[in-house]
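Issue 218. Parser rejects a valid record. Input:
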Amino acid sequence: MPSERRGLTVSERVAEETGGPLVDSFGRVHDNLRISVTDRCNIRCFYCMPAGNVTFMPRAELLSFEEIERFVRLVVPLGVRKIRLTGGEPLVRRDLPRLVERLVAIDGIRDVGLTTNGVLLAEQAHDLFAAGLRRINISLDTLRRDVFARITRRDEFDRVVAGIEAARQVGFDPIKINAVSIRGVTDEEIVDFGHFARRTGLHVRFIEFMPLDADNAWERAKVFFAAEIIQRLSEAIMPLVPVHRSDPSAPATEYVFEDGVGRIGLIASVSQPFCASCNRFRLTADGKLRNCLFSLEETDIRALLRGGATDDEIRAAVRACIAAKREGHEINTARFIQPERPMYSIGG
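Output the parser choked on:
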C-alpha cells in the first residue's frame, strides 16, 4: 500500500476510489447530512407551520428506516461523517430509537444528533440514549407559558420542560436549546435566556427568524439580529467573549460570559450568512435531496431507491446535487425567492 494511503479508514479509501468527497463548485466539502424522518409535528409554531388545514405526506411516501440506512451507507464513502435527525417532529416517528441504533453502528459516522421540540422527549429520552444518541438540540423559543402557547398554538410548555430535565438526567451532552429570535415576540426574553444558560449549564442558541414560514408572513423587520442579542446580554449581564471555533463550518458563533459561566450560540442566517463555509445538505422525509435549506430544486432520491438504481447511480445523483449548489441563499438581495416548502416539510 502506498505510504500516503496508510492510516485511511475503509470508507476513506472508498471515497478515493469513488471520486473523492462531496465538493461543490465553490470548493465547499459536504460531510454533514440532515435527515428529516417525518413532516408531522405535534405543535404548530407560526414560523414553521400554518395553524390548521395541514396536509401531511402519506406514510407510504416517507422513506423507510431501511431506505434511510441504505442512503447513509452510500454517502459515507463520499465523506459524510455527521448525521442530524429532524422533522417535523422526529419523535412522532414510531420506533425512532431503532433508526438511531442503525445509524450509530455505521462505520464512518462519527456523530449522530437529533433536533426535537421536546414534547415527547421525557418518554423517549432513555431509549434514545440507550440506542447511542448523545447530542440533542431542543427547541424552546420562550421561557413563558403564555408566549409558548402564542408561538406554538399548543399548551405543551410543561412537557417540554419535563423533556429537557429527562435529557439531563439520562446524560445527554451537550444539550442545546434552540430559541428563534423574533422582534416583538421573543426579544424581551433574551436576558432571561442568558440567566437560564448560566443557571442550568445548557447551551442556549439564538436563531434569527428566517423566511421559511408556511404563511409567507416573514419580514426582515421582524428579525431580532445577532448583534443586538450580544449587546443586550453584554449590557444586562456581563460581556460575552467569543469561543474559538473548532469547526469553521459550524453554523453557530459561540460565546461565553466573561466569568466563564453560561454558553451562548448565535445562528445569524440573515444578518451574517455563513454560506461560504456551509458543509450541510438535506434529505427530506419523502426522499428529496436538497443542497441548501433554501433550495428551489430537489433531487428525487426516493425514486432512485425504489426504482432499482445502482449504488453508483445514486452516488452520481448526490454528486450532481451538491455540484449544483448556489453560492448563497441571497436572503439579503432582491433576487431571493422563498422556497415553496415551509420548514416543517423541508426538515429543521
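Fixed in the parser; the record now loads. Residues 106 and 325 are 27 Å apart (CA to CA).
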